Amino acid sequence: MALRAELGEVGTLRRLTRQLRGLGTNGVALTGLGLQGLDEDRRNAALYAITLMLGYPTSTDQRTGRVAWDVKSRPAAHSDARFTTFSERVGSADMHTDSSFYPMPEEQFILYVVQAANCEGGHSLLIDGEDIYQTLQQTADGRAAYELLCSAPVPFRVPAVYAAGETSIEHHVAPVFGPPRRDGDRFTLRWRYDAIQKGLAVRPDLSTPALVEALALMNEVAEHSAPRFKQQLATDTLLWADNHRMLHGRTTYVDERRHLIRIRMSDVPNAERIGPSGVVRD
Q: Do 173 and 153 meet the contact criterion of CB atoms below 8 Å apart?
């Protein structure tokens, strides 16, 4: 891409992305990024430049094609009938991978903290998929759950804001632990318990007692048992994570002024992606 080559000439960008790639970790938080005080357009342009150096930024939803997604409370979006996603409301966010309900979840994402929560909560959480695996392997039930979740088709329902229309009910079927796509990986992780529960309501033909039990055990490990990173990220912090190897979430909070920006990145050009996530141009 011409723009990526151009951005590569910017020394600060080149050094930042080289350091991120060279860390050899599945998640990192960088404080004091230096974007605080910029207007929205300039801030988002800087974030887009960073993500373009790391991969191919994708659109978040089918209707608007937005790449930079505001993670903040939207009170008008709440209703009992609507499947509201974590990024539209205050409170906690269960551990999950992004785009779990799409055919090709992006390999990476960033979260940039525009305004940290001015309360005791809102801690960011990260769990390495290897820690999920090792925790499951500690018991016979956990080992059986892992084996089943490597092969069983699991329906993930698409939240209303990401569907083709507000009243559309869409879902995607895939195993929780899919085949590895990169050297050295044990599996490709796909997880979002609320989307699975709503998916099973849409596809009861895929629900079995063994699957329901395995999913509940996986949720217990993700929410309580596995070791995790926990930190309240300060304003002007950038969080980068590997979306195929890490679960992320947050602790509950009440400050509606909390505001983050999320951008997801694919390792392949968007023209080669399958499904609604991804823009048609790079």
A: yes
DSSP track, 202-230: H-GGG--HHHHHHHHHHHHIIIIIS--EE
Q: Measured in whole angstroms, how far is the alpha carbon of residue 27 from the centre of its chain?
A: 12
Please check the confidence at residue 281 and state whether its pLDDT lies above 60: no
pLDDT at 279: 43
Residue 196, H or E segment: helix 193-202
List, for residues 172-200, the tens digit of each pLDDT value: 999 999 999 888 899 999 999 999 999 99
Write out pLDDT tens, residues 70-103.
999 876 554 555 556 667 778 899 999 999 999 9
Distance between CA atoms of residues 92 and 89, nearest Å: 9
Cα–Cα–Cα angle for 85, 281, 69, rounded to 5 degrees: 25
Helix 140-149 vs helix 209-220: crossing angle, to nearest 10:
110
- N-term to C-term CA, the chain: 8
Q: Which two tokens stand for residue 7?
A: 């951005």
3-state helix, strand, coil in the chain (%, to 5): 35, 20, 45
Residues linked to residue 93 through DSSP beta bridges, in sequence order = 250
Residue 142 pLDDT > 90 = yes
In sequence order, the β-bridge partners of residue 71 are 260
Query: What distance in Å separates the CA atoms of residue 86 and residue 250, rounded to the nearest whole number?
Result: 9
DSSP letters spanning 27-75? EEEE---S-TT--HHHHHHHHHHHHHHHSEE--S-TTT--SSEEES--G
Q: How many CB atoms lie within 10 A of CB 36?
A: 14
- Contacts for 44 with CB less than 8 Å, ≥ 6 apart: 68, 261
